[in-house]
Specification:
- The complex is a heterodimer.
- By secondary structure, chain A is mostly helical.
- Chain A contains ten helices and no strands.
- The longest helix of chain A is centred in the C-terminal third of the chain and has 38 residues.
- The two termini of chain A are about 15 Å apart.
- In chain B, the strands form two sheets. Chain B has a six-stranded mixed beta sheet, sandwiched between helices.
- Chain B is about 35% helix and about 20% strand.
- Chain B has nine helices and ten strands.
- Chain B folds into two domains: about 160 residues, 3-Layer(aba) Sandwich (Rossmann fold), CATH 3.40.50; about 60 residues, no CATH class.
- Classes of the chains: A mainly alpha, B alpha/beta.
Chain lengths: ~250, ~300
């Protein structure tokens, strides 16, 4: 518990100091609210509008919680397929990397043309953003199994499936999770961009609306909500990892 | 059987050895004198095995006409200079690599290139970090599809016997190097395959732990009498443990000498001080030195 606190308080102090400095600067230099509102003004605006904000947050959350598992699963399936079929991996891998150079913003309108305004194009967009880190990390982890353990398995007469399920898969978990954690933050971003492009609710939509009305304070509220959502998802993944990879030696013993 | 176990227990209870055996396993109650020629086919017979590796159009011979035999319930060691192809030989016996020529047979059947016939203990413990010690020890049987409930019972008994009681549910990284090596040895011992291949199992340990483990292995083996092929750089270790020693030449590896070790069993560490032991050690060391010198030229 003590070590937990020693990890938590430095960033906490940094955040508090940053907010304090911001507030001080805004009131000291008399900066107009439509350029840069102070944290206190943003907070009171958010407090005064909770039901509306909650509606948008819930929409984004729902979209993220649908898109992220789909994206992660697709990433996992791609990784497993390419790992088990090395010939396919050589053919597809360059294409996968290429796919990451397509800007999401350009892809969004196309997806809407193809799939309409419903849930589907948004989930596709989040999936496209999410699957790549998972796929790359999982493939790396699967290919890097320990040579000595691999030799042991072969000598002991293990089948291909046994080598995969008892050695490669569990051994790839730490690497896989580093990919999933990156995907978790990407997923929230993906959801916001998706709402930006075609939606009538959600934080992305709210942000766009307030931006065109020069409500800078509300744009900041949207940013804060996105950050909090990402952090929450990140924390859940980290907890899950701690539980699943509990065999890993801790940093301090 | 009972008389020699009792003798062993009363004779060598030095107190610092972690895993002394009290009860012999039923499977280990084999004939006492493995030095006598036996009628059943040998546990392992390697015949005229040669192997060369080709890398960038250059062919390096690694093994040259190697023949060796491990009889049923015999402890056989291979000593040789580094790079004498011992690991390649193990890979060939284990079926990971095919020899260019020659055959490997076990219990009278040719098994060249077949996997899953041996129980293997690598140089590093290579315990799976995500498995508890108990699950690690059970791995070999699990791979062969053995029923798990009875095996688990047996594994728990053994873990207690070898001084790992209380660590059944621990993960490997929580154990010291010597304890990990004992768990790895137990994994090999409890494997369903009869023949054990031990690849320099103690080379990564410090001197004190090493001599501890040698004594431990000697006692354990003398009660269980599995067929063992043991690779080591350490001549004293080979003399203490084995019934026969093959001395390998430098690259390409071939059998230079086959030495029968006459000391009666059960053996005790004290034999290392006898004149016969010292003489054999001198002889083997000289052979090894000559080979090592040849390798430098």
């Amino acid at each position: 518990m003590k070590s937990y606190w020693s990890q938590v308080w430095p960033p906490l102090v940094a955040v508090v100091l940053f907010l304090g400095g911001w507030q001080l600067a805004v009131s000291l230099f008399h900066i107009e609210a439509w350029i840069l509102p102070g944290p206190a003004a943003i907070a009171s605006e958010a407090a005064g509008n909770t039901p509306g904000l909650w509606k948008h947050t819930a929409a984004t959350l729902r979209l993220t919680l649908i898109g992220f598992p789909v994206g992660t699963t697709v990433g996992l399936i791609v990784a497993l397929l390419l790992h088990l079929l090395p010939g396919l991996k050589r053919a597809i891998y360059p294409l996968l990397i290429l796919s990451q150079n397509i800007p999401t913003i350009a892809l969004g309108p196309l997806l809407i043309i193809w799939f309409g305004f419903g849930l589907l194009p948004k989930v596709v967009l989040i999936t496209l953003v999410c699957f790549f880190p998972v796929a790359v990390a999982a493939m790396g982890g699967l290919a890097q199994s320990d040579r000595v353990m691999l030799n042991y398995m072969k000598m002991a007469g293990a089948s291909k499936w046994q080598i995969f399920s008892k050695l490669e898969l569990p051994g790839s978990l730490p690497s896989l999770f580093s990919g999933v954690r990156i995907s978790a933050t990407y997923a929230v971003m993906g959801a916001v961009v998706a709402e930006w492009i075609g939606s009538d609710k959600g934080i992305g939509y709210y942000m766009l609306l307030q931006h065109s009305a020069y409500r800078t304070d509300r744009v900041f509220i949207a940013i804060a909500i996105i950050v909090l959502l990402s952090l929450a998802l990140f924390a859940i993944i980290t907890l899950l990892e701690k539980w699943l990879v509990r065999w890993k030696p801790g940093k301090q013993t | 059987m009972t008389s020699f176990t009792e003798a062993l227990n009363s004779a060598s209870r030095t107190g610092d050895s972690p895993g002394l055996q009290k009860n012999p396993l039923p499977s280990g109650a084999g004939a006492g004198g493995s030095d006598i020629l036996q009628t059943p086919p040998p546990a392992l017979e390697v015949k005229d095995v040669s192997k060369a590796f080709t890398h960038r159009r250059r062919t390096t011979p690694v093994l040259n006409q190697v023949s060796l035999t491990v009889r049923q319930q015999e402890f056989v060691s291979i000593v040789g200079p580094s790079g004498c192809g011992k690991s390649t030989l193990f890979h060939i016996i284990g079926g990971l690599t095919l020899p260019d020529s020659g055959t490997v047979s076990m219990n009278g059947q040719t098994v060249t290139g077949q996997r899953g016939n041996i129980s293997y203990m690598p140089q590093q413990p290579a315990l799976f970090p995500w498995r508890s010690i108990e699950d690690n020890v059970l791995l070999a049987g699990e791979l062969m599809g053995e029923p798990q409930a009875a095996a688990r019972e047996n594994a728990r008994r053994w873990l207690t016997k070898v001084g790992l009681g209380g660590f059944e549910k621990a993960y490997p990284h929580m154990l010291s190097g010597g304890m990990q090596q004992r768990a790895a040895f137990l994994r090999a011992l409890l494997a369903p395959q009869e023949l054990m291949l031990l690849d320099e199992p103690f080379s990564a340990l410090d001197a004190l732990t090493r001599s501890d483990m040698q004594r431990w292995l000697l006692e354990l083996w003398e009660e269980n009498r599995r067929s063992v092929l043991f690779i080591t750089h350490n001549i004293e270790e080979a003399l203490l443990l084995s019934s026969r020693i093959y001395v390998f030449s430098g690259r390409p590896g071939s059998v230079l000498h086959s030495v029968d070790v006459p000391f009666p069993r059960p053996r005790r560490e004290e034999i290392t001080d006898t004149p016969e032991f010292l003489q054999m050690r001198r002889q083997l060391s000289q052979w090894m030195r000559e080979e090592q010198a040849k390798g430098r030229n």
